[in-house]
Structure prediction request, 255 residues.
Amino acid sequence: MNVVLLGSGNTATVLAKMIHAAGHAVLQVWSRDQLHAEELAAQVNAIGINSINDLSKDADLYIIAVSDTAIPELAAKLQLERKLVVHTAGSVSREVLKNSSANYGVIYPLQSLRKGMTILPPVPFLVDGNTDDIAALLHDFALSLSDKVQLANDETRLQMHLAAVMVSNFTNHLYALTEDFCNERKLDFQLLHPLIIEVACRLDQGNAADMQTGPARRGDEETIKKHLVLLEIDEHLRDLYQELSESIRKLYRKK
Ligand SMILES: NC(=O)c1ccc[n+]([C@@H]2O[C@H](COP(=O)([O-])OP(=O)(O)OC[C@H]3O[C@@H](n4cnc5c(N)ncnc54)[C@H](OP(=O)(O)O)[C@@H]3O)[C@@H](O)[C@H]2O)c1
Prediction:
């Protein structure tokens, strides 16, 4: 496929590299900042532009990968007639593109993407189209980038986006708070890395609830009390610890 990417941030950068590596042609990268457009374009043998008027009419697919809040504003500037246009957001309706073209959809990468990634991780895609044919076409395109592709409408995609926030953003936030806790006490946070990796990888062996360990799971209230004493000077972390311990207790009371 011939592809035009609109955006030059984390998602546009990773997608451009994946699309290029899969043998598709990235014709242009558009960004509101010409330098950003050219920097990304240079990495995938494309042309960088910053004017919507200069968009190629020869692409098969236009991918909007700008911040969620900027999608409606950019979509309103696009008049692509029958050319296929998609966005990449988890929580933005497909219908935001309905006035940009007769053919539109979504390609949502269910992965945490960062510009600086040198090794591209596996990226599952949730795809949607305004007709069955468009959905099938986008499904095939996504399959050329990844072996994990599913069709998902706005509602399913939003639910998966929420799930992604829970398992990725929230766990990472706990890592960040714990790293601070360790640094303040001159404890080596890096010693916890093998534990973090082991617990995440264990999900390949069974469901998360069955893999739960720790004092709240064991009903070890003595240890929990000792931990709470340690957290007396940190109200925020203490509240989180109590909340999460209670959530674990509740889950296993139910079972
Ligand atoms: N990163 C992820 O892990 C991830 C995963 C799945 C889906 N997504 C989705 O991918 C999309 C892009 O996210 P991202 O992570 O790539 O964001 P990002 O790294 O912050 O990049 C945002 C891009 O949007 C452009 N932009 C911001 N405001 C704009 C405006 N008013 N007009 C035109 N362009 C504007 C920025 O241009 P400048 O370079 O000029 O600032 C930049 O190219 C979002 O819909 C997001 O939900 C992201």
About this structure: The first strand starts at residue 2 and ends at 6. The mean pLDDT is 96.
